[in-house]
Every structure is written in C-alpha cells, then in structure tokens.
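Re: your question about NACHT domain-containing protein

S., sorry for the slow reply, the queue was backed up all week. Below is exactly what I fed in.
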Amino acid sequence: MEVLGAAASVIAVVELAAKVGSLCLEYSSAIRSAKSDIERLRKHTESLKITVDGARKLLQGPHGAQLETSQKLHKALADTYSQLDDVATKLEAKLYTGRTTKVMRRLGLRALKWPFESKEVDKIIANLQRDQDSFANALQIDQTTEVLDIHSKIDLATLPSVSGAAFDSHAEEHNARCHPGTRTELLRQIQEWANDPQAEGIFWLNGMAGTGKSTISRTVATSFAEDGLLGASFFFKRGEGDRGEAGLVFPTIARQLMYKIPALVPSIREALVDQDVPKKTLRDQFEKLILQPLGCIHRTTAIVIVIDALDECDKDEDVKTIIALLAQAKEVRSVRLRIFITSRPELPIRLGFRDVQGKYQGLTLHQIPEQVVEQDISTFLAYELARIKDEYNGQVPLGWPGEGDIRTLAQMAVPLFIFAATICRFVDDKGRSNPAKRLKKVLEYRTATRDSTLDKLDATYLPVLHQLTFGRTDQDKAEVLAEFQNVVGPIVLLAQPLSVRSIARLLDVEPEDVRALLNSLHSVLDIPSVDDAPVRLFHLSFRDFLVDPAKRTKNEFWIDEAKYHKMLAERCIQLMHQCLKQDICGLKVPGKLRSEINQQTINTHLSPAAQYACQYWVYHLKESKHKIEDNNFVHTFLTSNFLYWLEALSLLGRLSDGVLLIRELLYAAQVTSDFIEFLKDAEKFICSHGSIIERAPLQIYGSALLFSPTLSKVRNQQWEKKLSFIKSATGIKDHWDPHQQTLEGHSSYVRAVAFSPDGKTLASASDDWTIRLWDAATGIHQETFTGYSGPVRAVAFSPDGKTLASASSDETIRLWDAATGIHQETFTGHSGSIRAVAFSPDGKTLETNRGLLSIKSDSDFLQDQRPVDNTFFVDDEWITKSGKNLLWLPPDYRASCVSVYDHILALGHASGKVTLFQFVSP
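Result:
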C-alpha cells in the first residue's frame, strides 16, 4: 500500500470498504445473532467509504497534485486498508472456506456464525474512526485550499445577507444565553437530537411570548458552534428591517455555510453564475443555495442550522413555505442536516408543521412542568440578585433579597423568563433608587400575576414605567405620559430600529429630549451609549404590552397604534419633502450607473432618517388605516415629489418596492378619488421604465419621462423636471400600451395559462418542458416546475388554489403543491397526449381531453366534456364577449393559449412570452 500514490491508495480503500459492507449484508440476511454488531460495522464502513470517496474525487480533480495534506495520508490509508483487509479475510473465511462450507452445505445458512465479539467490533470501529477523522480533517484543509484558488473565488456581493441575523452578530452579542444550571434537560434533549443519525431533520421548539425561546436558541447555537456543528443561524426580528424578510433567509444562511464549510463554495458559485438565484423563489433559493451544494460534499458529523422566532417573519404565506422546504432536510444523504426552529405557536406555523407531520420532532415550552420552570427561574434570580448585591457593596440590607422573595418572584414569573430578566435589569438600574426599594415595588404586583399571562406582562413592565410618573402632580404626570407616547410610541412601531439621532430627526425633536426620556427605560430598551447606534427593544412582548387594545382603558401608557402610525407617515413625508431633490447625490452625469455610485456618497446625501422615510412611509400609512383623499398630504407629496422619491429608491436599491408601494396606496385611496388616476399612471410609469431607472437613476428625468405617453399624468405633471438637453419629441404614443405587462422566461412556445382561484397567481406551461408560476399583480416569477420528458400542454388550479395539475405530451398528469412546488403525484397509463385539464368544483376529479379522471384513482375514464364559461374569450385575432368582437389583436399579440380572471386576460405566445391585459366591463 505505502508504495502507491495517494489517489491509488484511496481507490483501494474505497473498494475494500464496499466489500466489507457487502459481506456484512450477507451475514445480516443469513443469521439472527449479532444483528446489532453487524449493522454497526456495516454502517461505519459505509460512512468511511463516503468520506474516503470524497478524498478520491478531490485527489483526482484538477488540483489534486497540489493538495499537500491529502497527499500525505499514506500511513492512515495503509492502516485502514490493513484493518479492512483483516476484517474481510475473517468474514470470507467463515462464508466460503474450510469446514464451515461443508457444514453449511448440510445444515444450510443456519450453521453460519459471526466471527467477532462485540468488544472486537468496538475496537475495529474505534480504529477505523480514528483514521476516518484524519481523512475528514485533511479533506477540510485541502478543500479550503482548493476553493481559495483564483478560479474558485466568488464575488460575495452577489449573495445578499442580513446584517445582524446571525447568533454571534453584534446585534445579538449582549442578548442573554441560558444561565448555567438552567434548562439542562431541554438542552440535553436538543444535543441528543442533533447527534442521533436516526432523528428527524427538524426540531421545533415552540412557546408563548416571553418563555425564553430566543435565549435557548442563542445557547444552542453557541454550543453547536463550540462543537463545530453549527452551519448557520438566522434570528428573525420583526421591526428590524430585513430581519423579518423571508426572501433573504436562505441567501444569508448560504453565505454563513460557505465560511463554515468552504467545500460548498464551488456549488454556490455555480448557482450564482448561472442564474440570479437570490432574487428567485424561496424554493429555488433553498434548492440551489443549500440542498444541492450540501449534496455535493461528504461529512460524518451533523450540520445544524438554527432559525429563531420564525413567527416574526413578515408574511404568513412565506412561513408555511419555509417549513415545507426545511422538511426536505433528510433528503440530503451525504450529510446529516439538522434544522433547529423556535417560534410562537401561531396559526400559520401550526398549519405548516401539520402539513409535514412525521418529519419533525416537537416540544412546547409552556407545557414543561411548572416546578421545573420555577426552579430554573429561581436559579437565575438568585444568581443575578446576588451579583447586584455585590455591586452595590453594602447599600442593601443584610440577607437581601431573601429566599422568600426569590421564591415569590419565581412564582410570579412562571412561565415567563422575560419577567425575571426585565425585573433584574430594573432592580440593577444605577440611575434610580437602591435595589431593595425597586424590588419592593415589583413585589407589590404579586397579586396581579395570579389571574392570567397578560397580567404577568403588567407585573413585568408596569414597575419600570410607573417610575416615570411616581410622585408627580397631575399636570406633570400628563406631560410625562404625552412625552412617553410621542417618543416611545413611534420607537416601538418602527419598521426597523433607528438611532437616537435619527429618531430625533424623524420626530422633529431634539436628540437630548429623546435621550432624557430613554434614560429611564434601560430595563426595557437596549439603548446604546452613542447617538448613532440603533435603539432596540429587548423583547417584542414590550411592544405587545403597550399596543394591546384590551388595555386601552387600563394602561395609562397605552399606545394607539393607528394614531402613531399616521404620525410616522406624516413625519416621513415631511422629512422627504425637506430632503429630496433632483440629482440628490450631485452626480451631474445622466447616464451614471447605480453600480458606479459609492455607498458612502449615497449615505452622505441621504441621512439614515431620510432613507427610512423613503422606504417605510407607505408601511406606516397602511398600518394607520388612513384613507387617502384628494389634496391631502399624500396626494400633495406625490404629485410634487414622485420622481425624487423614485430616484431615492433607485439609489437605495429598492426600486422594485415602488410598484408594490403604489399598489398599497391604491388600496388605501378613496374609490371616488381623482388621485387614483395619478396612482394608476404612476404604476405604469414604474413598470414600463423600471429596468432603466434601476440601472441609471437619473434616467428618471430622461428616457423615462421622454418615452412616457403624451397623455400620461406623470409625464405632464413632471415634465419641467426633464433633463436640460431635452427640448421636445414627436412620434411619442398618446397612451400606455393596452397590455398590463409582459412576462418573459419560457424558452419556447407557451401552450397554456391559468389563473389561481383568487387571481393572485398565474401559471404558464410551455414546450420547454416547464411550468412557471408568476405573481399576477407584479409579474414576478415565483416558481419553476420541472421533471417532464415532453412539452407541457395544460395547467389548472384546484378550487382551493393549493394544488396545481399539469398535463403533458409525455402522456402523464402531475399534481404539485402550488405553494412550494413539491411534486405530489403522477398519473400514468394514458393512451395519448393530454392537451387539456381542469378540476371539478369539489376538487376530487380532473377533467381532461381524454375524459374524467378520479384524483384518487387513475383507472376510470368517462367520455364527458363540459365547456368552461369565461367572461372574455380570445378567438384567434379577436377578444370577444358574448359572441361579439371587442378588441382586435395585432399579430404580435395573438395568443397560443389564454386564461381569464375577472377582467384580466393572460395570453401565452409562441415566442415564450405571456402578456397580461386588464379591461373594464364593456
């Protein structure tokens, strides 16, 4: 062995490991005794084979000769070969040679005996494991070397990630971990789950607000990181911008995985080079950035991904999709992928896990016995209060706080760990009275905790807030409460955290006034010592407590959500009106590309407060439930500043949000409002010119204005803002094109299109053997379904919109989960091409051009076809209704297939495009 090269030695070991595994299988099927030992040895040799085969691929690759560490594995390879050869020889001796063979001829396989004792098997596995670890370590080193090669480098700027989402980010640095001696049994269970090869791929830990889920997540992530098992983590946090955005979860996780496991870089790099995966659907992101790259490596230890507070993801529909995708974790065979998830037991999450029953292990925090939780909280309180006592060095009475007080506090807290953490911060507040007095105030609320969890939040937060008004006159108290609501109200409602300086700028108050108020709230708000760092809530339950409608008359600190969202919307608009202008960054070059503009230049001319205002003013307006009317503050702002706002969005890389925000405004506008016409025109302006505005922001005042129709409201109102070198233009069309938008992506003839029952999703089928799903409102591509061996001829949604049926010329019908794109079932045995498919009203039967098909059985065909009655029809070159021609279609717009929802027509074309038209009822 030692005279062979490393690659040849590896091949020899791979072949011998496969041989031992095969022999074990023969023994397993032939004898009843020693089943456990046989299976242990077989599994280990299979694991060894996978690891060594990974070394073989690397050594035989283009850089194999340069991989110094793997080339030096001769001794470990020789030892492994010798051990396997000895095992194989003994197994073969019993099977094929000597007296055993004669006895087996006479007595059959019953005479066969396993040649090793359990202790011998233990020793063999230990020796093999030692060498396997050497191979794995060498692989890791050399894979790192390989991916650092100039040909494998990756531009990480193309893989977006969320700053602050990882457990070890600066944003999470000072947040709590489990105190030593607490949660011991739970943490042990989680550790066992991660290390158990037979365990489910997901561990879902759920519990109500304040029960300590995020603290456990940080502790678990820290532990797995120390053990070398943590692959990535994502801590959702509502109200912190992109930390609530599902579309960035998988790119962020993939980026972390690359740093932890460099061998993933080539696969992820390939996904980024071949297609713009970060902008694709969640399913595409998960498969291309995580599943497929992990499937290309071999690793014997677990890779754990921690996802905390999934309930704080912004969109409920995204939550269910994420759960369905993560449930595929066990499909990766080459690595043991484990997903640890925490959340509140909200309905969308419960439904998501219901749909993947049998693929996860679950545990509910608030169902852990009260005495266990109380003991853990007591341990935490005793430690923290003892620390506080030491820091105050004699300023508290002897024996303080006393076992009785600790026991009372623990009973008040159960099951809310957030109570204990908040009260300890309150008692430790250096700016207030001594700890003993503050603890006494907390204990005054003991009776409030006996009724409900909601009252426990009273006991958690009211001691902190009442200090603001204690001892004040009625007039002073009213002023303090108004100041609290006008400052803290907006802070807890912000879409992402802002610094003290930016909060002051947004609210039009002095930074000193903001800081003076916040100085009394260190127990509930994470307030940095510098004015430029963001102010954060320690826990979302503080916001829940302040805005709870049930407490409107009971809590004097209550925040009226609608009122303060409207206030924030108005302040955002005022700030934008003051700050925004044409060519705000002073570029002076009309064709300057966004990619050529330094981020520092943008930050210099657009303050953090102004950036926030541009991105979130519509969000606050929507949450205020305020209806837009003609000539109100929204109408006035947009008609004078619309182009400036679009320029700012383009500079911030958020222009794609513009269409969605305009549509939110359309929803909020009064039905009879003339402003609606401006908004509709603004929507078409962005849709038509978005690609150039996104690339070159100043072209808003050039190409976008010039080539908008002469009767466009945006063009006419904003024409004076055109670039100075533009004088006039002729030959410009008067109106926008009648089609709403064109969807491009198929590479061949579009054969069928279909709307979902709610009209929100459009499916298209093509001769390129794919189905594509589109957001019917935005035209954004959502999913691509593949797997056919022929052109797809027809598509249809089930009545509930959850299932998509497709028919192909390969004589099959397939059912898909419309949310996740997961293939559910294939019906075969048809005697010809299927060109049409539709669901029955009850969703139990499929109608095809070859008859009716029961979804539960593919055996009964009935020759019975019923026409589908749509409002509009497309008959060759005409769009018709009730047999009358309504609109002639030029040759470029004639359809190969059509689908109708309400007054929206989707036309599929031979070019591979899909065109949408919207009409009013004639």
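The longest strand covers residues 336-343. The radius of gyration is 33 Å.

Happy to talk it through on Thursday.
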